[in-house]
Amino acid sequence: MRRQNSFADLEYSARRKPTRWEKFLTDLDQRVPWAAMVGLIEPHYYRGNVAAPRWDWS
Question: HSE of 1 in the Cβ direction (CA atoms, 13 Å)?
Answer without folding.
Answer: 2
